[in-house]
Amino acid sequence: MSLRVYNTLSGKKEEFVPLEPGKVRMYVCGVTVYDYCHIGHARANIVFDVIYRYLQYAGYEVTYVRNYTDVDDKIINRANERGISSRELAEEFIKAFDEDMEALGLAKPTFEPRATEYIPQIIELVERLIDKGLAYEAGGDVYYRVRKFPGYLKLSGRNMEEMQAGARIAPGEQKEDPMDFALWKAAKPGEPSWESPWGPGRPGWHIECSAMSSSLLGDTFDIHGGGRDLIFPHHENEIAQSEGVTGKPFARYWIHNGFVNVNQEKMSKSLGNFFTIREILRQYDPEILRFFILTAHYRSPIDFSDQNLKEAKAGLTRFYEALAAADDTLRRHPLPEKAICPQITDAEREVYDKIEHLDEFFAAAMDDDFNTAAAIGHLFEAVRGINRLIGEARFDECPLSLQVIADGARKLRELGGVLGLFGSDPADWLERQKASGLQAVDYTPEQIEALIAERSRARAERDFVRADEIRDELAAAGIELLDSKEGTTWRLK
Predict the structure, then answer these.
(1) Cβ atoms within 10 Å, residue 169
(2) Among 244, 258, 343, 350, which residue carries the largest CB count within 10 Å?
(3) Residue 116 φ/ψ, nearest 5 degrees
């Protein structure tokens, strides 16, 4: 199966065919550095980090560009509030962003340009737009003539006339049309500025990304990414600027991740449900946050809540418990020279097959528009298989099981690495989570026993999905199940 991606531009999944065989050029809009990053930033950056990793895993040579917007109204306003320069503020929050991304296990992009490093390229791009009649100077500002670009709104699918009805020209603006947007802004007293043919000023937000992406990746490149909130106006305006100058397609595949809700409400400072990455990581291991984000498809909305993070912790714990058990088993039972099995049970054969083909199942899920949720589902199947082989412990009769356990643990680590997961020593990771002492939902002993009984019935009926759901539910509440030949008991973690 070849890689297929959902292209926002066409509104459908398409086969991914890069411009240059074996090579991928990808640009993802980074942050405006005026504050600490929040859970929405975490999702966007983790999503594209996994896309970057998977493309490399699939054999592509990837040039990945993620920028910093280090000059902007928000940066200037925040710097003025604090009585420091815009440059000082930007440096502070670039450093904070880098620290947050390192904590979340992100791989470094190939290039991390800053907008202020590309002022000459930005000015040149604006001049070319003016020469083509697509932009005009007005009082030291330069605006883009939106109605002169026939493809405007082709990415967002919005209606120009409906938008025109609500558009207004703000006081001090000298636009020809309310829909026009700023390419260059004349300097105001105390603001950072650069010399230009239109007087001292600074770039508008949208032109920065057009200049940086074309400088590093060329006029046309393979993937442009970002959050859904950037489709309009930012990405729409990038297309107008870039294609207006070159007459060529700007980016061939547009990939956008879904929104993050908090307790089923839109995240907002005014609602008091706004969480920075740093606040979350004071309570949860960074890998738990990463795992939580990847258990949903990147285009779907995701609901951030304390309960959902606890469930993610329980799910991730199952992986580390399986890896720890596999490591321990292989220490106690060295791999035989000849891994054979005179008589294989049906259950063992099922496990063997799943682990043998795990790479294929994983790749098939990821090739379907980077479906990390489905990929993790296949990894869970391997965990169940490893646990089953360890639980049955027929190593003297069937030493092949030891080889399958070893292969399963190796593949979990390798494929988990593509997702940025399972990189810690299992024993150390489990010990850290135990020490964190995070408890969750309260259950009465009667409710716990009832769930254990339901789980036993599910296992007897080979409904392992439901059995695992019950185990995860209790684990998220800080309740550990202990299985033995005599039955199942429980204890608080």
Answers:
(1) 13
(2) 244
(3) -70, -15
Task: Assign 3-class secondary structure to 437-463.
Answer: CCCCCCCCHHHHHHHHHHHHHHHHCCC
Residue reference for tokens 């800080």: 478
Q: Is 269 annotated as a binding residue?
A: yes
Rounded-to-integer distance, Cα 288 and Cα 298, Å: 17
Which amino acid, 109? P
The domains of the chain, with CATH numbers, are 4-135+205-257 (3.40.50.620), 306-424 (1.20.120.640), 439-493 (no CATH)
Instruction: Provide the pLDDT for residue 493.
Output: 58
Please give the average per-residue pLDDT across 92-116, as a whole number.
98
Closest by CA position to 39, among listed 226, 308, 267, 316: 267
234 is in an annotated binding site: yes
Q: Say how far residue 151 (Cα) sits from the centre of its chain.
A: 29
Q: Give the integer Cα–Cα distance in Å for 112 and 104.
A: 17
What is the full DSSP assignment across 383-395?
HHHHHHHHHH--T
442 vs 445: CA distance, rounded Å: 10
Contacts of 127 (CB under 8 A, 6+ apart): 197
Integer Cα distance of 27 and 65 in angstroms: 5
Does 416 have pLDDT greater than 90? yes
Q: Strand, helix or coil at 200?
A: coil
Instruction: Using the CB atoms, write b or e for 240-279: b if 16+ within 10 Å.
Output: bbbbbbeeeebbbbbbbbbebbbeeeebeeeeebebbbee
Can you tell me whether residue 316 is helix, strand or coil?
helix
Looking at the predicted structure, is the pLDDT value of residue 441 above 60? no
CA distance 372 to 2: 16
The helix (H) or strand (E) run that includes residue 488 is strand 487-492
- CB contact set of 188 (below 8 Å; sequence gap of 6+): none
Residue (of 321, 318, 266, 276) closest to 104 by Cα position: 276
Say what the pTM is.
Answer: 0.88
341 is annotated as contributing to ligand binding = no
According to the annotation, is 398 in a ligand binding site?
A: no
Q: Which residues fall within 8 angstroms of residue 4, CB to CB, at 6 or more apart?
A: 13, 14, 15, 16, 367, 368, 369
The helix/strand/coil state of 162 is helix
Q: Which pairs count as long-range contacts for 327-330, CB under 8 Å and 24+ apart, including other chains?
A: 327/409, 327/426, 327/427, 329/390, 329/402, 329/405, 330/402, 330/405, 330/406, 330/409
pLDDT digits (tens, 9 = 90+) for 379-410: 999 999 999 999 888 888 888 889 999 999 99
108 annotated as a binding-site residue: no
Nearest-angstrom CA–CA distance, 236 and 225: 12
Residue with tokens 């150390």: 428
Dihedral over alpha carbons 160, 162, 165, 168 (to 10 degrees): -50
- The two beta strands, 135-138 and 141-144, are antiparallel
